[in-house]
Amino acid sequence: MSSLATTLLLMSAALAADARVTTQDGTELTGTLEAVSPEEIRIDAGDGVQTLPLDQVRQIGFGEASATARPPADAVELRLADGSLLHAATLTATVQETSIASPALGDAKLATNLVQSVRFAAVDERVSAAWEEMSARKTQNDLLVIRKGDALDFAAGLVGEISAESVTLLLNQREIAVPRERVFGVVYAERKAPTGDVLCQIRTDAADVLQVARLSVTEEGLEARLIAGVTLTIDPGHARVADFGLGRSRYLADFEVNVRYEPVGLIALPFSNDAPITQKMRANRTLDDSRLVLARSVYDRFLWFHSGTTARYRLNRDYKRLQGTVGIDDSPPGCREFDTRVNLVIVGDGRTLLETEVRRGADPQDLDIDVEGIRDLEIRVQSPGETLGHCEHLGFAEARVLK
After folding, report:
1. 294 touches 360 (CB < 8 A)
2. Which N-terminal stretch is annotated as signal sequence (predicted)?
3. pLDDT (tens digit, 9 = 90+) per residue, 103-149?
4. Among 370, 376, 390, 397, who pairs with 299 as Cys (CB 3.0-4.6 Å)?
């Protein structure tokens, strides 16, 4: 028996996880994830176990795709040298070892020299830019960061023990214990970035982002070996998605978006930049907090627009194709009796890439648009003329860009 077959056989007795597997062509399989290897995955979709080559898998989803990821209250944020982001309910550390406890990751220990920065205090818009700049510094000394009003300051030295009560700093050959409640964060001296191939990126409901080199299904959960070299076990109930796209594709819902609204029909009364709730653009949920329905097909990943909406995305010329499926949302009660039509216009750097009418009752339209060289992408959903604006809801399912 081959080593791969043996590995898969052993994994088949491990903890099974309910999952949604999305392939590179958009096909979705829902079932029990039984095994993951460097070459393939196995999923029991109810009609027997299916084996998929890993290079055909775009992502594996767990739980509700639209669920908001939130760190634990008063979470400590760790950024590792490999780019992974962890959130811990508790953290202690020595110069050699850092210990954390996390709902998603359980109790874990990792070498302190894998940690690039630790943030103890909540960040807000007044200091977020300063913290991002400071935590990205290439410094020869450790930095103990203190917040002073709307600014951040630091003392450079050698950070020693981090306990629940204090953070120790060796400064000018003096050891100082600073009360932890006064410490905003710690930035360690520049770490050497680990090397290796990323198999996938895993995100959890605690907003953890893990750069994974190897993934397997075990009796304890999803076992992830990070590029940094540490192995963490993720409770499948806290996992959200394992992205195997490796940056080749990205959902528009994951981009920052600039949205502009124009009054339409019955909501044509003047309003400020805060559009009425019925017109607000949404990602991965409709107006009534449900999944998107297009011609009786149900989608978890989508953009939801009301007419009068323009959404602008910065692609930075990094992508070649825009893909997805568009149609009129069939989920709102009472809307199916309306002959709803909207105009969809997609513009790249001021040039019209697509202009089409989307109508209720028509088959959803599959889009595959060339966006190579495009810096700024606009999606405009327009009312077709003098209408009431009622039920003019366009869904853009599986809206994504590919490299």
Report:
1. no
2. 1-16
3. 899 999 999 999 999 999 988 767 877 887 888 888 999 999 999 99
4. 397
Same-domain pairing of 46 and 104: no
Q: Please give the pLDDT value at position 388.
A: 67
How far is residue 380's CA from residue 308's CA, in Å, rounded to a whole number? 8
Average pLDDT, whole number, for the chain? 85
How far is 204 from 63, CA to CA, in rounded Å?
Answer: 10
Residue 9: phi and psi, rounded to 5, are: -65, -45
Residue 142's DSSP bridge partners are: 157
Could you tell me the two tokens for 279?
A: 């017109």
Same domain, 98 and 177: yes
What is the identity of the amino acid at 267? Answer: I
Structurally, the chain folds into a number of domains equal to 3
Is residue 57 located within the same domain as residue 156? no
Counting Cα atoms < 13 Å in the Cβ hemisphere of 359 gives 6
- Are 111 and 237 in a shared domain? yes
Domain boundary among 61, 84, 104: 61
pLDDT value of position 318: 87
Q: Are 277 and 289 in contact (CB under 8 A)?
A: no
Quick one: 238 and 260 in the same domain? no
pLDDT of residue 339: 78
Choosing from 14, 46, 61, the residue where a domain stops is 61
pTM: 0.63
Q: Which residues contact 38 (CB under 8 A, 6 or more apart)?
A: 54, 199, 214
For residue 42, the domain's CATH number is: 2.30.30.100
Q: What is the DSSP string of 75-128?
A: PEEEEETTS-EEEESEEEE-SSEEEEEETTTEEEEEEGGGEEEEE-SPP-TTTH
Residue 95 φ/ψ region, left for φ over 0, alpha for ψ in the -120 to 50 degree band, beta for the rest? alpha
Q: Are residues 24 and 120 in the same domain?
A: no
Length of the chain (residues): 403
What's the mean pLDDT in 91-107? 94
Q: pLDDT for 286-309, tens place per residue?
A: 887 777 878 767 677 899 999 989
Confidence at residue 14, expressed as pLDDT on a 0 to 100 scale: 46
Domain assignment of residue 53, given as a range: 1-61
pLDDT higher at 178 or 32? 178
